[in-house]
Amino acid sequence: MKNFKQIAFGLMVGALAIGFSAFTTANSSSIKYNKDAKGKIISVSALYYNISGDPTSTDPDNFIFRDGTTPAACSTLSNKECQATWTTTNTPHNNQSPTDAGSPSLSSRGPVDKVYNGQ
Fold first, then answer.
1. Which residues pair with 43 in a beta bridge?
2. Residues 6+ apart with CB under 8 A from 107
3. Please, are residues 63 and 86 in contact by the beta-carbon 8 Å criterion?
């Protein structure tokens, strides 16, 4: 009987763990909305990919937005930058530059050993 109670307790704990994990999601979005105290969106920070291959580029027209996770095409090539975070006034759409999204400012740089090859 003691063994049965331990097994039942273990199954119950396992079921609870699985049940609660079904309601949690990982935030994998590359877009962050910056809001004021009233909840109004004042700017949007998003991850963009360098299409120029110039690791020192700060030109927003050399970057494009890709929704979702890092593209597999962002392959390792020495001395190339793949990604940077830009802050804009509007939410970007796929293949849009920070300039297209409005009033871009460079927020942060990504790893310097990757380049986006267009896929």
1. 34
2. 45, 84, 85, 86, 87
3. yes
pTM exceeding the 0.85 threshold for the entire prediction: no
Burial of 104 (0-12, 13-18, 19+ CB in 10 A): buried
Tokens found for residue 92:
């970007």
Q: How many helices (H) and strands (E) does the chain have?
A: 2, 7
Angle at the Cα of 49 from the Cα atoms of 118 and 96, rounded to 5 degrees: 85
Task: Give the residue numbers spanning the domain of 51.
Answer: 31-116
Q: Is residue 102 part of a domain?
A: yes
Tell me the pLDDT tens digit for each residue of 104-115.
Answer: 999 988 654 454
Is residue 39 domain-resident?
Answer: yes
